[in-house]
Amino acid sequence: MKLVIFLVLSIALMANGLPSPNPEVQKTTLCVYFDNTKQILCQHSEIQIQCDAFVVGQNQSIRFLGISQQSIDNTNPELVKYFVYPRKENSSTYFGYSASVEGKSVEYVLYYGEQSDQPGLRILNLSCWKKLLDVLKGTEQTQLVKLTDSQEKVSLIGEILIDINFKRSAISKRYYNPCYYGGFYGYYVGWYCGK
User: Fold this and answer.
1) 10 and 2 in contact (C-beta within 8 Å)?
2) What residue stretch is flagged as signal peptide (predicted)?
3) pTM of the predicted model, to two decimals?
4) Which CATH architecture has domain 30-189?
5) Where in the chain are the domains?
6) Cβ proximity of 146 and 78 under 8 Å
7) CB 194 within 8 A of CB 30
8) What angle do CA 96, 99, 103 make, to 5 degrees?
């Protein structure tokens, strides 16, 4: 059944002059954070989750956050966190999840919280966070990416685009077809578009 749906979707996209997405990317999680509405929309396969969210302590030049394959503290949903790796828009390499801010080491994470206690992206609603955790835990495909100024590579299960310049209607087109509009994970450098 999934193959039939994929073929129908591919034919529809080709009829509209848009390339069909790489089927391997359907096994990963793609997210867009809309700064104007303070919401994150994540999609994995046919599942979509939309949660109220807030970016905490983020550098304005960073437009993407890679989501680490490894979560922190899997025992209690309220404590689960995923390291996020910042990436600039026209780069295929990521910065590490920790940085020195005012002489202190801070870690960037995707997390649930009622208060902003860590830099990264905070989900405001626990029930929505639990649904997002189910999506992240169900992500099958990982991407091994290189860190800037390092030989180290990390496995990512998804990526978040931080949308600060576009209205929701404009960015939605890119969200649903990042290959056409130039998108995620450094996808434009090959992984998503199958190049």
Assistant:
1) no
2) 1-17
3) 0.73
4) Beta Barrel (2.40)
5) 30-189
6) no
7) no
8) 160
